[in-house]
Write a structure and sequence with these properties.
Blueprint (H helix, E strand, L loop, with lengths): L3 H10 L14 E2 L11 H7 L10 H14 L3 E5 L2 H12 L5 E4 L4 H9 L3 E4 L20 H11 L4 E7 L12 H14 L3 E4 L3 H11 L8 H11 L2 E5 L10 E5 L2 H14 L10 H13 L3 H20 L12 E5 H4 L9 H13 L1 E2 L1 E3 L1 H4 L1 E2 L5 E2 L5 E5 L7 H17 L6 E5 L10 E4 L1
Parallel strand pairs: 1-10, 3-4, 3-5, 5-6, 6-7
Antiparallel strand pairs: 2-8, 7-8, 9-14, 11-14, 12-13, 15-16
Helix pairs in contact: 1-14, 2-11, 3-11, 4-5, 6-7, 7-9, 8-9, 12-16, 14-16
The structure holds ligand F0G.
């Protein structure tokens, strides 16, 4: 526990950037759902059987089988986390003149693509850009725009189409099977590679089962398997729906790509049968990928996220609706109307949540995705969101009720809240290390 005056000091020392806080100074940590899950007793017990052999470990065979059984893809490449998989795959598929198209590129995805010299274009349906609009699959990719973009840039220049399920940067919103099927067709006709960024595919499957016609009788796992069957490959950060603290993989149907990735893997991550992972990590992933499709687990998970969203809505806090899978996203642009986007209303709310309740959250708006024009003026992001990401199997309803109470204080004091300016930023992924000052 910390007092408000202590938190003021901690926040100043962290340059008003919650990534720079020490975790012991945080009461409720909603910074991310990534790597923050509590592992089950079954996961801990299989870890005891971790085979730490350098090559051909049994633990690798267990992980490979689990990923293969889920995805149906023949080539599986282990990595230590999602961005390591991205760095390997997109440095091969990317390069100058290449264009990648996604519903919304996650920040590390965009950074890895741009670092290769390629362009990353977001192509979300208009419904997905309006936080208050109720629509069942706000994570869908705009297929008309996709066809236009392929024509405009030439199919040969498209590095890949990446469907992010659920759409993290767009509010954790799900993607429908119908949308994945249309993308499959367009990619097939144009001979363009279709990839899934599948780190929250179990949660996405829950939404398909409950919202899309024809899927209510299928298991969550079968739904995920159907989606995998439509794509050519996938990248996964297992730190989300793998229910582990560390891990990831590339999975593909394409032998040539798999061979090229393997060469880079050995240079950057490790040998083909462990990537950047310990044997015990691979055991935990194999078990986690099974547990995550449990119907009671997924129901409880999605219902508890929705609970927070419903309570905030009842209090008049504007959120992205309907509530997504892993997080509640506050629409800071409309909640903090008195702060212009150039002064980062999302970051102001992030700081206020920490000050008022010791709650750590993250801005997903112009701090994360803003760019500058030639005159150095901010080109803002589409939305100014603040994400309250819920770690899996960690917090109880009373913790979440505390978060809701804190919003009561925020509502009372928000008129006095001031915006921020950036006083230091690195060239890539600036939100992680930027320094701010209050205006
Ligand atoms: N893709 C998506 C959709 C993600 O949400 C993340 C990570 C990654 C790729 C990269 O995976 O962290 O294992 O390297 N998202 C975390 C988050 C960091 O907080 O949303 P990673």
């Amino acid at each position: 526990m910390t007092s408000e005056s202590e938190r003021e000091l901690h926040l100043q020392r962290a340059h008003y950037n919650t990534f720079l806080l020490e975790s012991r100074h945080v009461i409720i940590d909603l910074l991310t759902d990534s790597g923050t899950s509590a592992m089950s007793s079954d996961q801990w017990s299989v870890m005891m059987k971790g085979d730490e052999s350098y090559a051909g470990a049994r633990s690798w065979q267990n992980m490979e089988k689990a990923v293969h059984d889920l995805t149906g893809y023949p080539y599986i490449i282990p990595t230590h986390q999602g961005r390591a998989a991205e760095s390997i795959l997109y440095s091969l598929l990317g390069g100058k003149d290449k264009v990648f198209i996604s519903n919304t590129h996650f920040d590390t995805t965009r950074a890895n693509i741009e670092y290769s010299g390629a362009r990353a274009i977001d192509c979300l349906i208009p419904e997905g850009k309006d936080p208050s609009r109720i629509y069942p699959f706000k994570g869908n990719l705009d297929v008309d725009q996709l066809e236009r973009l392929i024509r405009e840039h030439g199919a040969g220049n498209i590095g890949a189409v990446i469907l992010t399920v659920t759409n993290n940067s767009g509010g954790g919103q799900p993607v429908s099977m119908a949308n994945a099927r249309s993308i499959r067709e367009i990619c097939r006709q144009n001979k363009v590679m279709f990839l899934l960024d599948c780190c929250r595919i179990a949660e996405n499957s829950y939404f398909i089962a409950t919202r899309e016609e024809g899927y209510d009788k299928k298991s969550f796992r079968e739904i995920a398997q159907e989606m995998f069957s439509l794509a050519d490959g996938a990248i996964m950060s297992a730190k989300k729906d793998g229910l582990v603290n560390m891990g990831g993989f590339i999975a593909t149907k394409d032998k040539r790509i798999a061979e090229a990735c393997t060469n880079l893997l050995i240079i950057r991550e490790g040998f083909t049968t462990y990537g950047g992972l310990s044997g015990r990590d691979m055991e935990a992933i194999a078990q986690g990928l099974t547990e995550v499709f449990d119907k009671d687990y997924l129901h409880y998970r999605i219902r508890s996220t929705t609970y927070l969203g419903e309570k905030l809505t009842a209090m008049g806090v504007p959120i992205v609706k309907p509530v997504g899978g892993h997080a509640v996203y506050i629409d800071a642009k409309s909640f903090y109307r008195h702060i212009p986007v150039e002064q980062y209303p999302g970051q102001a709310l992030v700081c206020d949540l920490y000050l008022a309740g010791g709650i750590r959250s993250v801005e997903i708006g112009s701090v994360m995705f803003g760019k500058y024009d030639l005159e150095g003026k901010l080109i803002p992001a589409e939305m100014e969101l603040v994400r309250l990401a819920i770690p899996r199997r960690v917090y109880t309803q009373s913790h979440i009720d505390y978060v809701i109470e804190t919003f009561g204080f925020i509502k009372e004091m928000k008129a006095g809240s001031r915006g921020l300016k950036i006083v230091y930023e690195p060239p890539f992924l600036r939100h992680f290390t930027a320094h701010f000052e209050r205006i």
